[in-house]
């Protein structure tokens, strides 16, 4: 990871607009509002209520609901909207653990906003934090190298230089992360960008050393003068930096020698990776290992533990919820191992849900195992001379996979906590893993394949872990990624985060818009000028084929068109995937709730027809030469003659024209509904041919 300087643009002359500002209590947003008003904008501020969350803060949703109502009211009252600033993350500070009052209020507030977004467009949505990400040490020169390399078209030299300096500068020198709790908002923002592209979330971390006035100036600059493509920014002094991912060469193999008279703790120790890590620890000389989990070992785990004990190690299984500080302390004490010298935090769970609909309780549970667990381990061991403190994070926190908002939030917290610890002189490493092949379950493999993650061998993962510990790294991504596949999952976009990746240079050589253009033109052209029935049929066939592919069937696999997609095997992730595919095919964004709101093939096709009507009537009919391809897939009408040209799209064109002239269009809605509700009567051949 590195931070590259990004250029400021001259602020565009501001057309007066409206900003919704969810203001912090510290005054940064207030000063920002002064600046925006001086630019001629109107600002609607929503203050934090500052309500103390209930005794169990994870269960108190009332505040989030109030925020949602306030934002919705502000949105309907004013137009046009220029954007929204979510500033509550600026109040997240001490104590730096998760579930501090400021952190809970900010995360719940953003969750509430995510729920409002599908109903009313509030984007672009700026999410501001302060001191939530680490920028510094070898990071910035890294970025300079990458830029130089691009200019000189000599990436290899730059990579070698970077690797040499990495080795020289290790351990990483990072600036303080005072508010790791706010980093959870970064994970949420990244996922929100995938789930609700219309919201176009942008993240900006303000300088923790800056004054209120300086921070407000930084935020104002980010809002008005930074390249609009940049979506992950850090302001430090007068520098504005954009987050970039770089590939580094794997370090030479290291072999750690662990102390036989010390204790080593593995949370999630009975899980897929936990047991593999325990075996690796013992292979490196550990003789006292504690495995923490809430459950007891199953048959397979017991067998592997017995094998470790046969090698001379003592393995204690401690039952505790890592999110419960007292229980964790007690369990470690009860294990009766020598003083700890190493901690591997691999406890965690994921919960699949769109942020727009995720209840706070579910969100908090995911944060509890990973983030609260990490913080509790930090609290319990901060005075012990550890050799390593490793947290198992995930690339999902960085790339932001749809449906994994709480998981991304928890992993982003781990990354920030590593920097927080390191800045205090404590060992820390957060590894954002890709997909391990170890005991890979089919559902995970399928999800990985969809987003471009290629499973890597356990031995490779452990070797990377060992090398990173030996090098004193603080944060690293270890993943095997099929980047073209990943970009496909993103709809062809190359986000700034990935711009400096050597692997993507060639893909980036083609302008991003070319992907969309290539994808959308033939399909939309083939739809223009069709009769209502043809349009409905073609769209239903296309949706059916795409839904089949999303489920892993061939395109021609016949799915019942009136049955609920969720009864046919869809879940929230697959619903996201279907939406993404349709967005790619039609070259436009659809709300995250698309499949939830229109949960059958027939209803989805009908909705697409109404969404696309305006565009279809504005688009010229496909030239004659393109038509035979389409016609071949569609049986001729019974009469054998051509269909009437007065299709739904054409009628919509007329209706739009009439509306412009303020002429009433009697019966328009009724006719449209009738046409669109007509059941698709396509023979199966349409699906096989992938009609549109
Ligand atoms: N496997 C991968 O490819 C991969 C990729 C990226 C990141 N990671 C991360 O690596 C870590 C390990 O992954 P894994 O594949 O081994 O997962 P796993 O097989 O699901 O194991 C996770 C373990 O965590 C324990 N756990 C969950 N919540 C807990 C809590 N509140 N307190 C105590 N223990 C808890 C579970 O045991 P109990 O239910 O018995 O408590 C389980 O044994 C996770 O943090 C995961 O996010 C894994």
Characterize the structure shown:
The protein contains 26 helices and 15 strands. It is of the alpha/beta class and 692 residues long. The strands form 2 sheets. It has an 8-stranded mixed β-sheet with strand order 1-8-7-6-5-4-2-3, with helices on both faces. Helix 8 (272-283) links the parallel strand 9 and strand 10 (288-293). Helix 4 (139-152) packs antiparallel against helix 5 (155-169) and helix 11 runs parallel beside helix 13. The structure holds NADP nicotinamide-adenine-dinucleotide phosphate. The site of NADP nicotinamide-adenine-dinucleotide phosphate (NAP) has 26 residues, from helix 8, strand 10, helix 11 and strand 13. NADP nicotinamide-adenine-dinucleotide phosphate is lined by residues 267-268, 270-274, 292-295, 321-323, 346-349, 368-370, 392, 394, 433, 435-436.
Q: Can you lay out the helices and strands and say which pair or pack?
A:
Blueprint: E1 2-5, E2 18-23, H1 28-38, E3 42-47, H2 62-77, E4 81-86, H3 101-116, E5 125-130, H4 139-152, H5 155-169, H6 180-195, E6 202-206, H7 212-225, E7 232-236, E8 239-244, E9 263-267, H8 272-283, E10 288-293, H9 299-310, E11 314-319, H10 325-335, E12 340-345, H11 360-381, E13 388-394, H12 396-399, H13 405-423, E14 429-433, H14 442-451, H15 458-471, E15 475-478, H16 483-489, H17 505-509, H18 512-527, H19 532-550, H20 572-586, H21 594-597, H22 601-618, H23 627-631, H24 648-660, H25 668-677, H26 684-689
Parallel strand pairs: 2-3, 2-4, 4-5, 5-6, 6-7, 9-10, 9-12, 10-11, 12-13, 13-14, 14-15
Antiparallel strand pairs: 1-8, 7-8
Bound molecules: NADP nicotinamide-adenine-dinucleotide phosphate (NAP).
């Amino acid at each position: 990871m590195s931070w590259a300087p990004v250029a400021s643009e001259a602020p565009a002359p501001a057309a007066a607009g409206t900003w919704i500002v969810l203001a912090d209590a510290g005054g940064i947003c207030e000063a920002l509002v002064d600046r925006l008003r001086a630019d001629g904008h109107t600002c609607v501020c929503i203050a934090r209520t500052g309500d103390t969350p209930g005794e169990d803060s994870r269960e108190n949703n009332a505040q989030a609901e109030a925020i949602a109502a306030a934002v919705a009211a502000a949105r309907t009252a004013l137009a046009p909207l220029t954007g929204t600033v979510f500033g509550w993350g600026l109040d997240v500070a001490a104590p730096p653990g998760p579930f501090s009052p400021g952190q809970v209020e900010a995360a719940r507030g953003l969750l509430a906003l995510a729920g409002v977004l599908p109903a009313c467009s509030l984007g672009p949505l700026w999410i501001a934090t302060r001191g939530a990400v680490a920028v510094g040490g070898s990071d910035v020169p890294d970025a300079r190298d990458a830029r130089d390399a691009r200019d000189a078209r000599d990436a290899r030299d730059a990579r070698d230089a970077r690797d040499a300096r990495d080795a020289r500068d290790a351990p990483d020198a990072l600036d303080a992360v005072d508010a790791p709790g706010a980093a959870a908002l970064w994970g949420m923002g990244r996922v929100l960008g995938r789930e609700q592209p219309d919201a176009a979330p942008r993240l900006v971390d303000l300088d923790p050393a800056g004054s209120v006035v300086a921070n407000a100036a930084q935020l104002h600059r980010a809002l008005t003068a930074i390249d609009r493509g940049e979506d992950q920014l850090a302001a430090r002094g007068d520098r504005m930096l954009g987050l970039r991912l770089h590939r580094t060469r794997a370090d030479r193999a290291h072999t750690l020698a662990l102390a036989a008279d010390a204790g080593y703790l593995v949370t999630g120790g009975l899980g897929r990776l936990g047991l593999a890590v325990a075996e690796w620890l013992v292979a490196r000389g550990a003789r006292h290992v504690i495995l923490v989990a809430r459950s007891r070992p199953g048959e397979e785990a017991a067998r592997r533990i017995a094998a470790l004990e046969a090698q001379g190690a003592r393995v204690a299984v401690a039952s505790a919820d890592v999110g419960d500080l007292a229980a964790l302390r007690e369990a470690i004490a009860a294990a009766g191992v020598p003083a700890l010298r190493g901690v591997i935090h691999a406890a965690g769970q994921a919960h699949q849900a769109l942020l727009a609909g995720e209840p706070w309780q579910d969100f908090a549970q995911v944060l509890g195992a990973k983030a609260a667990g990490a913080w509790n381990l930090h609290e319990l061991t901060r005075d012990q001379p550890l050799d390593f403190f490793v947290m198992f994070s995930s690339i999902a926190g960085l790339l932001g996979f749809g449906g994994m908002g709480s998981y991304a939030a928890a992993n982003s917290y781990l990354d920030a906590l590593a920097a927080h610890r390191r800045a205090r002189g404590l060992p820390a490493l957060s590894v954002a893993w890709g997909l391990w092949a170890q005991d890979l379950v089919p559902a995970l493999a399928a999800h990985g394949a969809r987003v471009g993650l290629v499973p890597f061998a356990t031995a490779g993962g452990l070797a990377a872990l060992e090398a990173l510990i030996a090098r004193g790294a603080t944060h690293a991504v270890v993943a095997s990624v099929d980047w073209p596949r990943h970009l496909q999952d993103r709809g062809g976009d190359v986000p700034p985060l990935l711009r400096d990746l050597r692997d993507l240079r060639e893909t980036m050589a083609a302008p991003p818009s070319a992907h969309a253009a290539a994808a959308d033109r033939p399909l939309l052209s083939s739809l223009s000028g069709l009769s209502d029935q043809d349009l409905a049929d073609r769209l239903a066939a296309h949706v059916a084929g795409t839904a089949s592919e999303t489920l892993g069937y061939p395109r021609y696999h016949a799915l019942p068109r009136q049955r609920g997609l969720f009864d046919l095997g869809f879940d929230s992730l697959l619903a996201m995937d279907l939406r993404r595919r349709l967005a790619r095919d039609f070259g436009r964004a659809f709300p995250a709730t698309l499949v939830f709101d229109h949960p059958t093939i027939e209803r989805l096709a009908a909705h697409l027809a109404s969404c696309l009507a305006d565009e279809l009537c504005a688009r010229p009919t496909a030239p004659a030469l393109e038509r035979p391809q389409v016609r071949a897939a569609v049986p001729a009408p019974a009469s054998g003659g051509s269909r009437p040209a007065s299709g739904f799209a054409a009628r919509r064109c007329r209706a739009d024209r009439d509306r412009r002239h303020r002429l009433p269009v009697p019966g328009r809605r009724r006719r449209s509904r009738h046409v669109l509700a007509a059941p698709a009567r396509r023979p199966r051949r349409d699906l096989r041919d992938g009609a549109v």
